[in-house]
Every structure is written in C-alpha cells, then in structure tokens.
Amino acid sequence: xxxxxxxxxxxxxxxxxxxxxxxxxxxxxxxxxxxxxxxxxxxxxxxxxxxxxxxxxxxxxxxxxxxxxxxxxxxxxxxxxxxxxxxxxxxxxxxxxxxxxxxxxxxxxxxxxxxxxxxxxxxxxxxxxxxxxxxxxxxxxxxxxxxxxxxxxxxxxxxxxxxxxxxxxxxxxxxxxxxxxxxxxxxxxxxxxxxxxxxxxxxxxxxxxxxxxxxxxxxxxxxxxxxxxxxxxxxxxxxxxxxxxxxxxxxxxxxxxxx
Length: 259
Fold this sequence. Notes:
Layout: E1 5-6, H1 17-22, H2 28-37, H3 42-57, H4 60-71, E2 77-78, E3 83-84, E4 89-91, E5 96-98, E6 103-104, E7 109-111, E8 120-122, E9 127-128, E10 133-135, E11 141-143, E12 148-149, E13 154-155, E14 163-165, E15 170-171, E16 176-177, E17 181-182, E18 196-198, E19 202-204, E20 209-210, E21 215-216, E22 221-222, E23 227-228, E24 233-234, E25 243-244
Parallel strand pairs: 2-5, 3-6, 4-7, 5-8, 6-9, 7-10, 8-11, 9-12, 10-13, 11-14, 12-15, 13-16, 14-19, 15-20, 16-21, 19-22, 20-23, 21-24, 23-25
Antiparallel strand pairs: 1-18, 17-18
C-alpha cells in the first residue's frame, strides 16, 4: 500500500475528462460516448439514452419497480431485490455490478469511467444514502456486503489507485475516500499539468466505522474493526481495532457577567 506510482507530466495514464469533452479532433457524439456511455456503438448509445429517459420520467412506486429492470439491460449485473432511486447519475454502466438487495437512494452517482479499469462492484445488502457518489477515474471500487454509505459520501479512486471497502463497514454522511495528489515541485507549469502522485489506493477493513465528514487519503489501509471519529483526516494506516479521533476541544466561555 505504500508503493508510490508516479504519473509524469504530459504522460497521463488516461485522458482527463476536460480533454475528452473539448477534443475537437473527434465528433461530439464520439466524445459523449467515451465520457458518458462507455461504448462507441450506435445501438449501445441509443439503448443508454432510452433507458435513461424512461428511468427519469417514471414516477413514484412505478419508477422504483421499473428502474432495476431497465438498468439491468445496460449494467453488467443487477441482483434480485435491488432498488434504485430517482435522479441517479449513471456513467459507463457496462462496468457496474450490483449484488442482491442493494439500495441506491435518490440522487446517487455511479460513474465507472475509465479506459482499462474494471469499474464498480457492489456486494449484497449495501445501502447508499441520498446523493452519495462513487466516481471512478480509471480505477476500481469494490464494496463488500452489509455496507452502509452515508448521504453525500464521496468515493473517488484515481489512476488504478483502487478503493476496497470490506464487509460490514459504515461510512458516515459526507465521508470522503480519495485524496490522490498532483505533483507540485515545478514552478514553470501549472500544478494540474505536473501529473498525479499515487500511493496505491485505499482499503477499509471489515467492520470499521467512519464518522461524518471523515476523509481518508490515498495509500491508507484502515484495519478491521476500527472507529474513526467525526471530522478526522486519516493520512496514515491504522492497525486493527484502533479508535482515531481528531484533537479538537470546545472552548467554553460563560456569557454571564463576572464580578
């Protein structure tokens, strides 16, 4: 987990989305297919558009019943009893796999984008809260069973720095897993052109619990049964059954007049 992978400036392992979207050398349709659909075939694109349109317009209980059936035609796999809420953002569905009894709440993002990655694999009995995001950038996310992902949590692996969340893990609201950094040693070119420095991805061990607004940086391995307190920024690996909390004390001052 501590081996660094350096991507030199000018030689990225995959093209950044901005470059893909604005590349005038290829057609607008081809750009859309590469960034959104994940396939360049016309039939695959039309099917993606039709499924997305129907999933968006079907209301209430009808939508909850229909969306798994619709998305099953374009996802790699969707298991039995899976529920998908409204207004979800789906990218590269052919690399997304959902197990049985998965709940994807309203407004979630499942983006498996990448040129040579495997994408997103979610195990059985996983719940993603409203607005939670999994955003692959040419890397993979593997989630075990019985995992709870809080509302607006953000799971974002980059350039083969994949993220693994083992069984029975809980992520609090607004938790963030990612933190791959750009190099910044040169002053003659902008930071975003200097390449990415990766330490090999993230593992969250079985049964661990991360509080709201926690952040886990690239290269960290959190062991089994750990508890990470609200607002903590984890930059180093934690052994099994560790409790980690940020050192932030409240300052208590009385409003009463003092004599």
